[in-house]
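Appendix B, Record 12. Input sequence as logged:
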Amino acid sequence: MIVTGPAVIAPLLRQAKLSHRPAALLQWEAIVDDPIGALAAVLAYEVIVVSVAASTGGAAAVQLIIGLVVSIAAGVAGGYGIAQALRRGWVPEYMKVPVLFSVLICVFVGSNAFLYESGLLAVTIMGVWIANANLPSYEELRRFKEHAMVLLVSGVFVLLVASIDLGLIMALDLRALAFIAAIILLARPITVYLSLLGTKIPDSERTLVAFTGPRGIVLVAVAGLFGERLVALGIADGAMMALLAFGLVAVTVVLYGFTLTPVARALGLSGGDAPGVLIVGGTSLVTQLGALLRDLDVPVVISDTNHRNLRNARDLGVPVLHGDVLSEAAEHMLELHRYDHLIALSENEAYNTLVTTDLTPEFGRNNIFQLRRDREHSSRNELPSTLGSRAFFWG
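Logged structural output:
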């Protein structure tokens, strides 16, 4: 029950528009905790098996160590192999996603053959390796992962809920509610505050992280599995594990779904109510537009790669970003959660098209605009609908 699922936390973070650092803390905690939580469940189960069987734990310890070594090796090998295959062009473009999916399943199943639930650790390591390999096809792979995650997680949730007896859920008493409340109000805050001792993270961010811990699909799946195994060992209370897990998931998802945004806003860690505008280009037209939006109390920032083009905007007190908005540095310097709309108005038509095309998944196609191309009416110069965005008119 220590896991905070990434499949659950990601939509909440997008909805709340959190600042970069607390959002990154919560996102990475969820990613890292999933395999750690599953392996912790395996370890706890092995301890119970040894105690019930009244035998030595040497064999269980050896199996755990071997499983960890194999899962780490499998994850590194899978990530390195995929990265090299994609970088060297060994896989055709249309086969990249199927090959990745096939290797993922092989790594998961192979690791699980040595130690149950270690496959989750193996594929997590594999994913971290691929994400840091700077692959040109990374964004395509990431979008496939997001689409697959929504479909698969939704289906698994439906199947798990359908397998739980409604009568058993209604039989949960005050002790179960007290248990869930203790995890949310005591265990979670105490753990976070102790973990962040000695860090430079502000108190507001610590408080937000401490009281944000939605549980997800891994908890329900693993708890249901080991609950059945405990019952088979003669431990009757094992039947309660799946119910408590389901109750914890339901309560935390509903609780944080309604409270994360107002709490983040109260702590000054949310983008606020006013939809912001990110403008690319430092022309005089952009400077006038930025000043107008600022006077209307709309969060606005102007980005340009030419420091001289931003001089007039700085003189007028309009926030600016010197650099390429597509760079990794801009992602860390610019709080994208504050901005709902993107307008590309630079003098370079090709750059406007590149920016709007690349950032469409982040902002949404309906929230991105670019300066109308002069030769757009010509069929010879007309771009396909997959490139660029809607035309922005000024007049």
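The longest strand covers residues 339-344.
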